[in-house]
Amino acid sequence: MIVGVGGQGTLLTSRVIGSVGIGDGHDVKVSEVHGMSQRGGSVVTYVRIGDKVDSPIIEKGQADVIIAFEELEALRWFDYIKDDGIFIINNQKINPMPVIIGKVKYPDQIIDHIKANFNNVLVIPALSIAKKCGNIKAINMVLVGVLANYLEIDKNLWIDALKSNVPQKFLKLNLQAFERGYNGGIDYGK
Question: Under a CB-based contact definition with an 8 Å cutoff, are residues 143 and 90 in contact?
C-alpha cells in the first residue's frame, strides 16, 4: 500500500512499482482510492504483485509493505500491514484541515506507537533527502529507492521503470532521489 496526501506523488509511485512488477514477469493490479486529494486529503493506492492477482484490494492485516508519505497517514492505515510486513515511513508531518482550523490536535508519538506494534519499521527523512536533491517533490522516489533496497528485484528494473514513467525533464532529479533512498536513505549530505 502507498499512503499519503494529495500532491505527494503516490500515484506516480504506484505506476513505478507496478511497472517493476510487470518487468519482473508478474501479474500486477493497481487500485487508487482518492479522498480530497487536490486539497491535501488522503490518497491510498494498492499495488498487488504476484503470479496471479485476482483483485487489487488489500484487506486489513494483509499488506506486505506500506509506504507512508506522511506520519498521520501511516497511523491511519497501520492496521493493514501484516505482522511481519515492512513499514516505510517518511518522518514528515502535514497538518490536515481539521488540525489547521484548530478542531483537533495532530497526534503525538505516532512513530513510537507504530514501532511498539511492528518490528520492521523504517523511518526515513525523505523530505530532507529530497531537499538535498533539489526538489521536495522527489520524496516519492526517495521512498521507492528504500523499497527497492528491500525487495529482491533487479535494480535495473527499477531504473527502467523510472525512465518509462517519469517525464524526461524530471528524470535526473528522480533518479538521484531513488539512488539516495536505495543507498539507505542516509546519503544526502553531498
Answer: yes
Please answer whether residues 138 and 175 qualify as being in contact, where contact means their C-beta atoms are separated by less than 8 angstroms: no
Q: Give the N- to C-terminal CA distance of the chain in Å, as an integer.
A: 31
| 5: Cβ contacts below 8 Å, ≥ 6 apart | 37, 40, 41, 42, 43, 69, 70, 73, 94, 96
- The enclosing domain of 59 has a CATH number of 3.40.920.10
Measured in residues, the chain has a length of 190
Q: With respect to residue 116, please indicate whether it lies within any of the assigned structural domains.
A: yes
Reading the chain (190 residues) residue by residue, the pLDDT tens digits are: 999 887 788 889 999 999 999 999 999 999 877 555 455 677 899 999 999 998 888 999 999 999 999 999 999 999 999 999 999 999 999 888 888 889 999 999 999 999 999 989 999 999 999 999 999 999 999 999 999 998 889 999 999 999 999 999 999 999 999 999 998 754 433 3
Tell me the torsion sign for CA atoms 52, 54, 60, 63: positive
The count of domains in the chain is 1
Q: Say what the pTM is.
A: 0.90
Q: Is position 59 within any domain?
A: yes
Task: Determine contact, residues 184/150, Cβ cutoff 8 Å.
Answer: no
Domain that holds residue 79: 2-182
> Among candidates 115, 176, 114, 106, which has minimal Cα distance to 141?
176
